[in-house]
Design brief:
Elements: E1 11-14, E2 20-25, H1 31-39, H2 43-50, H3 55-65, E3 73-80, E4 83-92, E5 98-105, H4 114-128, E6 133-139, H5 143-151, E7 155-161, E8 164-170, H6 175-197, E9 201-205, H7 214-224, E10 230-234, E11 240-241, E12 244-247, E13 259-262, H8 269-279, E14 283-286, H9 293-306, E15 309-311, E16 317-320, E17 327-330, E18 338-345, H10 348-361, E19 365-370, H11 379-387, E20 394-398, H12 405-418, E21 421-424, H13 439-443, H14 446-457, E22 460-462, H15 465-477, E23 486-490, H16 493-505, H17 515-524, E24 530-531, E25 535-536, H18 543-555, E26 561-566, H19 570-575, H20 580-585, E27 594-598, E28 605-609, E29 615-619, H21 622-640, H22 654-667, H23 676-685, E30 694-696, H24 699-709, E31 716-721, E32 734-738, H25 740-755, E33 761-766, E34 772-781, E35 785-792, H26 797-800, E36 803-807, H27 812-820, H28 825-828, H29 838-854, E37 858-869, E38 872-875, E39 878-882
Parallel strand pairs: 5-6, 9-10, 9-13, 10-12, 13-14, 14-15, 18-19, 18-20, 20-21, 21-22, 23-25, 23-26, 26-27, 27-29
Antiparallel strand pairs: 1-2, 2-3, 3-4, 4-5, 6-8, 7-8, 11-12, 16-17, 16-19, 24-25, 28-29, 30-33, 31-32, 31-33, 34-35, 34-37, 35-36, 37-38, 37-39
Helix pairs in contact: 1-3, 6-11, 8-9, 11-12, 12-14, 15-21, 16-21, 22-23, 24-25, 27-29
């Protein structure tokens, strides 16, 4: 909730038991409801709230709380349906940074997380208005409230005074607080999904009598899949569907179902959803498509009003293969094979393809959710579900959009420590992207932003569905490699060479093997074999020898993975040797992954099962195997790194920066580009190193400034200034390497004559000493938040597109990745020249990250050129763009 919206906006959120409540500011119209809320409280609750048992106290509290909110006073009310179940408020006194809080929860809603949820949102509102501490006087024996405050996750200090305790709560959300919010959100989220994924009863609304109808297909799949709960058909025009009695409406059912599947025409969906809510349904799967914006809004409103979780609309359905559930509420043709993969997709077609592929591989699924238009249940919800599900060991995602990327990233970072999370990177095209307003914005493509999210969260991103399944097969069946060194073994020399090329193309290494190992291999392989890596066993090799050779290579620790590429030959056929059996009988160590490339198999990937219950992935092409190994090696590398530590550079002044921004936006309500002097002051608030500069308006001032600033280089740059001269180099508004008064004066006259009234002044700067030209900046993405961009600079910056990006706030590992990811990175570490100072570059990126994270109004910031040298780095030029935006806490618990 923001100041502008808090007076009208209602936020929905989940309690610990998964039920939905609505939070909104209280106003004068709520007085009677709040008064009734206090009158229904028990004597003990009244004593804990008011330190006495007095109904009159409730009247006074209702009068005080239900006044219009101001900067020093806010009241939040929690409603379950239309009934108030909790009230929380803060009020400041003489010190506007400290506020006293009051909290009360209905007796029958104790221990369900109402108070904690209200306090989380109250903390957010208070921080927006400059409140840094809450105070509370609590009876010493009011143990429930003491527990709420202690478990909140914020720093609390207490002072005992007889029968009361005075507490001070510091409103400084840190990692401890966010982890506590995560835990509460995970508990509430998984509880809310139980009626959806583990329903005890299901009703299919719109189950048709004609073959080919979607509702009938879903009802058929539920019956044939032997759903363990109660199953109902709802069709007002039939007495029975598939030999199940049909009811006229959901309200006619003998008991309200946990889950209702809506397979009715789009026009009927909002009304049916409302009926479901009134009947007590807890979750919806809306497979109906074609809903316009108005009907979609009505559907979502019904879900929020009645506390129903929903997947869809426009979805394939949901499935859960647990033996005690056996839920297949989809209209897919094939039945999901029970297994270990959790799958979430936005496209029904992609879902069908993944279900088929996982079943064919034998991996199967633990649970499957088609998110469709994703109006409620999201990928973040399902990651939390699988995090707590001991049946899921692998996650596959297809997400076309992200509602809350930072919350998704935070959840994914936890889940990827437990299990692989794979996604197909959908929507990489930049078609339709708006024209960028600066070079930094041009560098921050949608594909780059999504890839930054995936890399930072440890998610394995593939380009195609085929690659997704190929990688899933490897991660499901084999250990992760310790590195990128691969031994290539083949019974045909040419095939081995092609496989080695595929590995190199994928970024893997095919190293020469140690002499002792090659001699040992040559001693066991047939005459004419080669062991230089690729290892050519010759077509004469038999299965036992091949298996022994693979085992020996895997045990040597000279490589991190073994790739065996085989082709059928007349020789192996003649002697009846099945070389593939060597792969399934090999006793290679568990630490070293083994993959096969079988060029005669029609499938892109399949799993070869061993007698010991293990499996070896076999690929139809070496490129597929190499890509899967690269993804596995990247995951191993990510897991081996310690979690990054937040970087908080010293010497920053966010308060001064906010004051500067407020002053600029007061004069420019629509936002815009601050001039060079304002930009310099903003950068100085964050200690970003830059060249000195002087703003001048006349030729004489330019000459005098040049004499003072020329420095060791003996030369200066002159840059025209003006509201319409943002991109001055493109308009010829910059003169470089000016030496002496005459050159400066001439350049100033030339700029004045050519640019005319557009030029309101000029900047004089000393020429930067030679170094590596780079670009560093930050962009506020409308969906993903602040993004820090780094890479090559200079006139070819956009042409080369050599940039990397990470989402702010950056950790130390993120900063390291930013420095090493661009192709120009070797130049920074001494390739053909003196190395740059990495410490200064890391510090600069950390300062840009904090500035972008602190200041949501900072739409863009660009430091270009950024000159990197062995003795440090300096920003030679910079520009920023500001917009009137408000901060939004991405971790605040609320439903979309």
């Amino acid at each position: 909730m923001t100041e502008t919206a808090s007076a009208v906006r209602t936020v929905c959120a989940l309690l610990a038991d998964g039920s939905t409540v609505r939070l909104r500011p209280a106003g004068p119209e709520d007085r009677e409801q709040v008064l009734r809320f206090y009158r229904e409280m028990s004597a003990d609750s009244l004593r804990n709230r008011f330190f006495m048992v007095s109904r009159r106290s409730g009247e006074r509290a209702a009068d005080r709380l239900c006044t219009p909110g101001g900067p020093g006073h806010r009241t939040l009310i929690a409603l379950h349906g239309d009934r108030p179940i909790g009230v929380a408020a803060y009020e400041t006194g003489d010190d506007p940074a400290a506020a006293e809080i009051a909290l009360a929860v209905a007796d029958d809603f104790h221990r369900r997380g109402v108070g904690t949820l209200l306090l989380e949102h109250l903390v957010h509102i208070a921080r927006e208005h400059g409140v840094t501490a809450f105070t509370a006087d609590v009876l010493a024996d009011n143990h429930p409230l003491h527990r709420v405050l202690a478990d909140l996750g914020l720093r609390v200090t207490r002072r005992y005074d007889g029968t009361t305790v005075h507490g001070v709560i510091r409103l400084e959300p840190d990692e401890t607080y966010r982890s506590a919010v995560d835990l509460r959100g995970r508990t509430a989220g998984t509880a809310s999904l139980r009626p959806l994924l583990r329903p005890r009863s299901v009703a299919v609304i719109g189950a048709g009598t004609k073959a080919g109808s979607v509702g009938r297909a879903i009802l058929h799949n539920l019956r044939e899949g032997h759903f363990r709960g109660l199953l109902h058909a709802v069709n007002p025009h039939a007495r029975a569907v598939l030999r199940l009695p049909a009811y006229g409406s959901v309200g006619d059912l003998p008991h309200p179902p946990d889950l209702a599947v809506l397979a009715v025409p789009a026009a009927a969906v909002p009304g049916v959803a409302e009926q479901c809510g009134r009947a007590g349904v807890k979750a919806l799967a809306v497979v109906a498509s074609g809903l316009d914006a108005a009907r979609t809004a009505q559907l979502t409103a019904a879900c929020r009003r009645w506390g129903m979780r929903m997947v869809g609309p426009n979805c394939l359905g949901v499935a859960n293969t647990e033996p005690d559930v056996r839920l297949d509420a989809t209209f897919a043709v094939g039945r999901p094979l029970p297994g270990t993969a959790g799958v979430a997709v936005q496209s029904g077609g992609v879902g069908i393809a993944l279900l088929d592929g996982l079943s064919r591989l034998g991996i199967g699924v633990s649970s499957f959710v088609s998110l469709g238009d994703k109006r409620d249940v999201s990928g973040n919800d399902l990651l939390q579900w699988w995090e707590c599900d001991d049946r899921t060991g692998l996650v596959l995602l297809h997400l076309e959009s992200f509602g809350n990327p930072r919350a998704f990233s935070r959840t994914a970072r936890r889940v990827t420590r437990q299990m692989p999370v794979l996604t197909v990177d959908a929507g990489r095209s930049t078609a339709g992207r708006r024209a960028a307003a600066s070079h930094t914005a041009a560098a921050a493509t949608p594909a780059m932003t999504r890839r930054a999210l995936f890399r930072q969260a440890g998610i394995t991103a593939t380009d195609t569905l085929g690659e997704l399944l190929e990688t899933a097969a490897l991660m499901h069946s084999q250990p992760l490699p310790d590195g990128v060194r691969v031994a290539v073994v083949s019974n045909a020399g040419g095939v081995g060479v092609l496989a080695a090329d595929a590995c190199a193309d994928a970024g893997l290494a095919v190293p020469e093997l140690p002499t002792a190992l090659t001699e040992e291999l040559l001693a066991m392989l047939p005459a004419g074999a080669g062991a230089g890596n690729p290892i050519d066993t010759t077509p004469a090799v038999d299965a036992a020898t091949l298996a022994a050779g693979v085992d020996r290579i895997a045990a040597s620790e000279a490589v991190d993975a073994v790739l065996v590429a085989l082709v059928p030959t007349a020789l192996t056929t003649a002697v009846g040797t099945d070389l593939v059996s060597a792969l399934t009988s090999s006793a290679h160590p568990a630490r070293c992954p083994l993959v096969a490339v079988l060029l005669d198999q029609p499938e892109r990937v399949r799993l070869l099962h061993t007698d010991e219950g293990r499996a070896v992935p076999a690929y139809g092409e070496a490129q597929s195997a190499a890509r899967a190994l690269r993804h596995a090696a990247e995951r191993a590398h990510w897991l081996a790194r310690p979690p990054g530590r937040p970087m908080r550079p010293a010497g920053t002044d966010p308060a001064a920066a906010r004051t500067l921004i407020a002053e600029f936006l007061a004069e420019n309500p629509a936002g815009g580009w601050p001039d060079a002097r304002q930009t310099a002051r903003l950068l100085d608030c964050y200690g970003i190193p830059r060249l000195p500069q002087t703003y001048v308006t006349t030729e004489r001032e330019a000459a005098e400034a040049a004499a003072l600033l020329a420095g060791r280089a003996g030369a200066v740059a002159l840059k025209a200034q003006g509201p319409d001269l943002i991109h001055t180099p493109e308009r010829g508004g910059v003169h470089l390497d000016l030496r002496g008064e005459r050159a400066v004066r001439t350049a100033h006259r030339e700029l004045t004559a050519r640019l005319g009234a557009a030029m309101t002044g000029a900047l004089v700067r000393p020429m930067a000493r030679r170094g590596t030209e780079l670009l560093a900046g930050a962009v506020q993405d409308e969906v993903f938040g602040a993004l820090v961009v780094f890479g090559s600079g200079g006139t070819t910056s956009e042409l080369l597109a050599d940039h990397a990006a990470r989402l702010a706030p950056l950790t130390d590992t993120d900063v390291h990745d930013l420095l090493t990811a661009p192709r120009c990175a070797p130049l920074l570490f001494g390739h053909r020249g003196a190395p740059a100072d990495p410490a200064s570059l890391k510090d600069l990126l950390a300062r840009l990250s904090q500035m972008a994270d602190d200041l949501p109004e900072l739409a863009e910031a660009e430091c270009a050129p950024l000159i990197a040298r062995p003795d440090g780095c300096t920003v030679a030029d910079a520009r920023v763009r500001l917009l009137p935006r408000r901060a939004s806490d991405p971790y605040l618990r609320r439903l979309p």
